[in-house]
Amino acid sequence: MRTSVINRKTRETDIHLALNLDGEGKSEINTGVGFLDHMLTLFASHGRFDLTIDCQGDIEVDDHHSAEDIGICLGMAFMNALSEKKGITRYGNIILPMDEALILSACDISGRACLCFDAEFPTEKIGTFDTELVEEFLLAFVRNCPMSLHIKKLAGSNSHHIAEGIFKAIARTLKAAVYIDPMLGDEIPSTKGVL
After folding, report:
1. Which of these, 129, 194, 190, lies nearest to 162 by C-alpha position?
2. pTM over 0.70, yes/no
3. pLDDT in tens, 130-176
4. Contact 43/51 with Cβ under 8 angstroms?
């Protein structure tokens, strides 16, 4: 099984995260940030990842440190669980509707960190959650599990629907990209022989 456990403690956050890439979509999420809990729960469900996150963060300051540091830990967990990336499909993409929102997501688990994020939100907040933290979370994620990740909002007027569409789309994109292709065996899907 492709699993990873990450424990990371700083002066701003104390995070325990456990990930199983080959799970059933079960999750136990407690970040202290209600909207982020919701997004990560549906991320686990749509990616079929088993995911446990406990974060004690300085949310009395704001949600920034928690969102960024959870992105760091989730990226580290994916990187560890993928190991040498033998046999993975490597690429994934989807155009996902969420009511009026339509999100394009595509990734290449290439070993090179690149986030192309083109998704404006009509509001600065969803409840108490700063919408700019969606991009910050994803930037931290791709820096710690180097990949090319493209997110583009094709339509959408409701910030909650846009964010939810993004997290669902990324989950399904990653699910496809980390899938073990039985035809590849132990082959690394790159002409370089390394990802």
Report:
1. 129
2. yes
3. 999 999 999 999 999 999 999 999 999 999 999 999 999 999 999 99
4. yes
